[in-house]
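Entry 14. Structure prediction run on the chain below.
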Amino acid sequence: MTIFTNDFFEMTEQNGKVFIRTIKSGFPLKDFDTILRSLPRVKLTNFAVLKNVLSTENNNAIEIGIWLPSIEIEVARDNMSASLFIYETVDTLRQNREQFVAEIERLLQEKRIIHGIQPILIDEIVPAKAYLIAQGTPAIKGEDAKTTYLEIPERKPVIREDGKADYYEMNFIFEIHEDSWLGEKIPAQPGIDGKTIYGEVIAAAPGKDASLRYDRKAAYEVEEDGKTVLRSKYAGALGQVQGQLTINHHLSVNNDVGVETGNIDFQGSLTIRGTVQSGFSVIAKGDISIESSEGLSGAKLIRSLEGDIYIRGGVFGLGETEIEAAGNIYIKHVNEANLRANGDIHIGFYALGSNLTANSILLDERKGKIIGGTAIAKDVIISAISGNHLERRTELIINTFNKKELQAIIQEKAKLLKNEQDEIAKYETQLQRILSTQSTLNSQQAAVVEQVKQKIAALKKYVSNLDYEIKVNINNLHNAGKEEIKITKEAYPGTYIQIGKKSSLLTKMTNGTFLLESGELNV
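Output returned:
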């Protein structure tokens, strides 16, 4: 079939290939390009051969390209879209609209494309350019489960002044009733299936499930209005232990702890309206709140095994008092006592001759004073004043982390976490198999099911603790290198500053933020 001819050459098509025969040499290449634009179905594949043929007379037909179909539909690899290509001139398209539309529809049927077919707008089709003719519907992943919890009021001490005295107050014990709403989970959604352009169903991935994090002994789950609702099993004080919601039994002592009460050791949270008298001890599993504005004098031991400690008044330790918290310690002031917290120590006004150990040690930046004693932290120490004009030795120390050792610990715990999670999955599969194959259980089978449930519960608690430890270590790693000691007003001579292995004893009055710069202490 002859495609084009003039005085210089003849182009023909045979079996989908384009050939050229030179009648006379010397036809300009730029003019040939104009001819090609008028022939969209010709696709040049060998420019070098074409250039040589046009410059030499040759009666032999030489292959220079391919003859494209008038209409072509290409389907994407994922079967989610199809593109239309029309290799005709714009004028041909406009003059033969109905024929082209009919041919496109025939091709769609031939290729069995039935879903997502787009309107055929001839005026918007550009020759040789892709035109979206069919679009599949992608699957939509289901929404992940959403968990919401009862918000525990922030434990942030407030210093109030009434002209006569300063008060160190905060919201501490958050009491709840039996069956109180503690949180809820909206379940993961199934998602919406999609379709390819062939009408094939694409299964949608369901949303990711999530577990409510709580102490199984303190709360229970119940289905309400399509949600999993978390409620308290008993009245008590709401708290968190390693990221898990818990409820501590709550004991309120309306007077002092002393001769009448004896020492107190309570498996819950404790509120003492009075004080703890000299020589007496208080130990509680949960939070401890001592609310007397007079504080303590000579108490032997105040210890929270899993919670925080709040002492509204000050502490006069007389060199005897020990205060220990698994979480944070909040205290108005402390004289000659030893304070240790796995979390932070917050002191409203001053620490005098005391030993403080915590993650961070935070005193009021306007009035806080650390005079004498030792303050040892992991992250930060903040105070307005350190030492005094008598140059009393006051030690401010931050123990830094070894990053490589911390990374190794994180990796080891993460590996252990993965193994325990796999173990849980194995037991849950075993439990599901037993329950799905047996409509009723005999006593022996029921005992096995109960043992598996207990094992799963124990493993989940262990995994939760591991996960909490990993997060703590990751936080420590993140803060490594950011350790600082901040004295906002006056750091007196006699103040000993140490961060990691670098230290300095101040010999003149100064203030500011002390940290490691290029491995050296900026004192």
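The first strand starts at residue 2 and ends at 5.
Filed with the rest of this week's runs.
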